[in-house]
């Protein structure tokens, strides 16, 4: 059996590994538009997270298998090899190239200078070929929304429509944030008031309860005001962006107008959803990083849902993603073994 895996990120390598183990006669080619493999692990993980990047060792063993070959600088689509050609050359073609573009907020001012996606920012500091020359200005502002970097930026605002307790990754990242020396973390205690629905959700989930406890600890243990020169991280909950405010030149961002939100129960699902209240306030800043999710890039020969920003075989890609997350958990060192 001959197979081609399009995309050399975690999903691609985990797929290739499973196929090699499950089919003795399998011969697999992995292709990627970039000259180097490992995708998200190489360009989507911060350099100071070696415990996550260590999975590259496992992928290297797969690439070193005599029945597996990697070919870089190979484009899929009209500017390279077509999907039809791959189907003619191989018994099996697996598309594991991920989502390489960003969703849009669809609000005024989104095209102003100083507004970037979080994906672009992460690619920039990891030296990804698409973003290594991005004209990111980190010297002419001291305030950013969402994320900061070693620069003149001293104050960062992380904005969300509601308090997010659900993700395990949030727990790990927040523990790291609290460990940063000289960082003032600010959370409004009033934002952490729990509704009856919140109480039920927290009691039914150990992870959510732990994240809430971390937020509450940060809100009650920090001094009310930062020390002179101290870096600041402000969690701004129950807000959603309404528009980006331009500077006097109308070319660059000078702030974000935020609409206050409140939680209402959805009658059908019983879940709480954030809805706008019609009350607005402005947050001055010189940079915005949007972290609102990705969308796929259309490929000739595949049905594509423009509204959802993905191919119409979403369940297959979800399955591949689940393999990558499951295997990543297996290979990540336990806290007791980390140095």
TrEMBL record:
Cofactors? FAD
Name of the protein: FAD/NAD(P)-binding domain-containing protein
* Superkingdom of origin organism: Eukaryota
Q: Native species of this protein?
A: Dioscorea zingiberensis
Task: Alphabetically list the UniProt keywords.
Answer: FAD, Flavoprotein, NADP, Oxidoreductase
Q: Does the keyword NADP apply?
A: yes
Q: State the PANTHER family in the record.
A: GLUTAMATE SYNTHASE 1 [NADH], CHLOROPLASTIC-LIKE
Q: Which residues form a coiled coil?
A: none
| Keyword Zinc-finger part of the UniProt annotation | no
Entry's Gene Ontology molecular function annotations = oxidoreductase activity
């Amino acid at each position: 059996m001959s197979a081609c895996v399009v995309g050399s990120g975690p999903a691609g390598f985990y797929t290739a590994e499973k196929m090699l183990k499950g089919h003795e006669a399998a011969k697999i080619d992995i292709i990627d538009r970039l000259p180097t493999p490992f995708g998200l692990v190489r360009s989507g993980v911060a350099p100071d997270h070696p415990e996550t990047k260590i999975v590259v060792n496992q992928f290297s063993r797969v690439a070193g298998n005599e029945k597996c070959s990697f070919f870089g600088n190979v484009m899929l689509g009209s500017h390279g090899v077509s999907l039809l050609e791959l189907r003619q050359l191989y018994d099996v073609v697996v598309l594991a190239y991920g989502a390489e573009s960003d969703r849009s907020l669809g609000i005024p001012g989104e095209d102003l200078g100083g507004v970037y996606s979080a994906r672009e920012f992460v690619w920039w500091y990891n030296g990804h070929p698409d973003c290594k020359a991005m004209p990111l200005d980190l010297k002419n502002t001291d305030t950013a929304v969402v994320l900061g970097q070693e620069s003149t930026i001293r104050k960062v605002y992380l904005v969300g429509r509601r308090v997010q307790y659900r993700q395990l990754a949030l727990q790990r990242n927040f523990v790291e944030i609290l460990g940063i020396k000289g960082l003032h973390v600010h959370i409004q205690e009033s934002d952490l008031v729990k509704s009856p629905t919140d109480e039920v959700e927290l009691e039914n989930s150990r992870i959510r309860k732990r994240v809430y406890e971390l937020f509450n600890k940060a809100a009650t243990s920090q001094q009310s005001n930062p020390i002179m020169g101290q870096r600041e991280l402000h969690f701004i909950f129950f807000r959603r962006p309404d528009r980006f405010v331009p500077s006097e030149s109308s070319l660059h961002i000078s702030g974000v107008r935020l609409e206050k939100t409140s939680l209402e129960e959805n009658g059908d699902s019983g879940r709480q959803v954030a809805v706008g209240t019609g009350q607005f306030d402005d947050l001055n800043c010189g940079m915005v990083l949007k972290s609102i999710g990705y969308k796929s890039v259309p490929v000739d020969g595949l049905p594509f849902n423009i509204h959802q920003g993905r191919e119409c075989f979403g369940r297959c890609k979800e399955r591949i993603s689940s393999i990558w997350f499951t295997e990543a958990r297996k290979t990540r060192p336990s806290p007791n073994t980390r140095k």
